[in-house]
Structure formats: C-alpha cells, structure tokens
Design brief:
The protein is mostly beta strands and 229 residues long. The strands form 3 sheets. It has an 11-stranded mixed β-sheet with strand order 1-15-13-11-10-9-7-5-4-3-2, with no helix packed on it. α1 links the parallel β9 and β10. It starts with 5 loop residues before the first strand and ends in a 12-residue tail after the last strand. The relative contact order is 0.13. The structure holds 2-acetamido-2-deoxy-beta-D-glucopyranose (NAG) (5 copies). The site of one 2-acetamido-2-deoxy-beta-D-glucopyranose (NAG) has 4 residues, from loops. InterPro entries: Leu-rich_rpt, Leu-rich_rpt_typical-subtyp, LRR_dom_sf, LRR_TM_domain-containing.
Length: 229
C-alpha cells in the first residue's frame, strides 16, 4: 500500500454517469464525420458513433472494416440477446462504448469475436455480477481498461476476478455503484492493475498488497480512517 497515491479531487458531487469522451492521440475530435446509417450513425474512417437513438436503433448496421471505435451508448437496448449482435463490426474493434443502455443481459460469448478489444465501457446499465459479460471478456485477453461505473453493483464477490482473469487489465472504473465494503484482496488476480477508481459509498475497506497499483481514487467515500498496512 505504500505505493498508493491517493487522489483527492475537488470536483463537485455531481455523478459522472455518462461515458467520458475518449482522448487519444489518434482520435482527432475535429475529424469530419458523415452519416453512415440513416442519420443514426456518424462515421469517420476509424470511428462510428451510433449513440443516443433513444430505442430507434436496436442492431448494429454494417460498418466498414476500418472502424475500430464504436459508440453504441444511450440506445435503450435492454438486452443483447444473440451472439451475432456484433457481427457487423470488425473483429479488430479496439474501443466499445455500451454505456446507458439499460442492459440487464448480454448473451455469453458476444465479445468473443473481438481479438483486439482494449477498452470496454459498459457502465450505467443494470447488470449484476452474474450477468456481467466478463466470462466472454476473458476470451478477449487484450482488455486493458474496463469501466463498469454507475451500475448499482454491490460489494465485489471474493471469487469474482479469480473467475475472470484479465491479465492486461490496467484500469478498472467501479465508481458510483453501491459498494459499501470492499476487501482489496478481490483484485489480486488482476496482475497488471495500475489504476482503480472507487468513488463510492465505501464505509469499510480491507487493504491488500497490490504491487502494480499506483493510482487509487477513493473520493466521496464514507471512510473515516484509511487502514494502515
Ligand atoms: C458516446 O456518445 C455519448 C452520447 O452521444 C457521449 O456522451 C459519450 O462521451 C461518447 N463516448 C465516448 C467514449 O466518446
Ligand atoms: C441520450 O439520448 C437522448 C435521446 O436521443 C438525448 O436526448 C440525450 O441527450 C442523450 N444523452 C447523452 C448524454 O448524450
Ligand atoms: C425516433 O424515431 C421517431 C419516429 O421516427 C422520431 O420521431 C424520433 O425523433 C427518433 N428519436 C431519436 C432520438 O432519434
Ligand atoms: C447488419 O447490418 C444490416 C444493415 O446494414 C442489417 O440489415 C442486419 O440486420 C445487420 N446484422 C446484424 C446481425 O445486426
Ligand atoms: C441478475 O440479473 C438478472 C437479470 O436481471 C436476474 O435474473 C438475476 O436474478 C440477478 N441476479 C442477482 C444475484 O441479483
């Protein structure tokens, strides 16, 4: 724990329950985007934004193979029933945003086709530890960042990450769930974990030695005392 850098931020208490725009050097925000499916999706060479269609888009239209970033957030999907849901997307997709879709179910195996997926944003849904599609993500060993904030998730079951080993996972966002107590040992299987965000309602935290962790965000928790290790 000596390596932890505790970040205390001064942001207001407004909940950040929308996926934050990705900022990467190769995604130029000024790139021209054109409608690529009936004014429901807007594409550039590398990106497809099919977000915010309020239930009017329930499938992913055929996208060109060069698209490696797909934003399918805010579409009231509720369920991803079939494993071919992503059949119209390149298997080389890097970033997938499924935030705020009211998802309660994702068919196991839905992510299996992706061989390059590094970042999955799946917060703001109604998934629980049984329905979170991490079993499928394990077959995507490339995953480096996972955002499951704002999902009403309770305390992380002790075996959860043991069942779903993600060897390259460096950043895990679990803020704004309902995690009131947490034993940091649950993160032991995540050997590359570098940053962990837990802005939550934590009242009780059991520490654990996580050698790769260098950034722990614990803002807005109810912790009175940070435990010594
Ligand atoms: C996806 O689109 C939504 C709404 O259109 C936006 O708020 C969000 O930031 C986008 N996600 C990313 C990762 O850019
Ligand atoms: C979500 O979609 C609705 C309907 O299209 C839109 O009014 C709202 O602004 C969207 N929210 C975000 C954060 O983009
Ligand atoms: C959804 O479709 C209806 C009917 O075509 C349309 O009036 C509405 O504006 C659409 N909503 C969005 C967010 O695209
Ligand atoms: C693929 O996209 C086409 C239209 O572009 C659509 O008709 C078809 O249903 C889509 N397939 C899936 C599996 O979503
Ligand atoms: C998880 O969610 C599913 C679908 O909403 C539900 O059927 C199941 O009972 C939930 N499991 C738990 C442990 O809450």
């Amino acid at each position: 724990m000596s390596m932890f850098v505790l970040l205390v931020s001064l942001t207001s208490s407004t909940q950040l329950c929308w996926s934050q725009p990705l900022r990467t050097c190769w995604l130029d925000p000024h790139t021209v985007r054109r409608p690529c499916f009936k004014n429901k999706c807007y594409c550039s060479k590398l990106t497809a934004d099919c977000s915010s269609n309020a239930g009017n888009l329930s499938f992913i239209p055929k996208l060109t193979d060069s698209v490696i970033f797909l934003n399918f957030s805010n579409n009231s999907l509720a369920k991803i029933d079939g494993v071919d849901f992503f059949a119209n997307v390149s298997t080389r997709l890097h970033f997938l945003d499924l935030y705020n879709n009211g998802l309660t179910y994702i068919a196991p195996g839905s992510f299996r086709r992706f061989t390059k997926l590094t970042k999955l944003l799946i917060g703001g849904n109604k998934l629980n530890y049984s329905t979170l599609p991490l079993g499928a993500v394990v077959n995507v060993p490339t995953l480096e960042a996972l955002d499951i904030a704002c999902g009403g998730l309770g305390p992380v079951p002790s075996v959860f990450f043991y069942q779903h080993a993600m060897p390259l996972l460096a950043r895990l966002e679990l803020s704004y769930n309902d995690i009131r107590h947490l034993d940091m040992n649950v993160f032991q299987p995540l050997q590359s974990l570098h940053g962990l965000l837990l802005w939550n309602k934590l009242g009780e935290l059991t520490p654990s030695y996580l050698p790769s962790l260098s950034h722990l965000g614990l803002h807005e928790n109810a912790l009175v005392d940070f435990p010594d290790t």
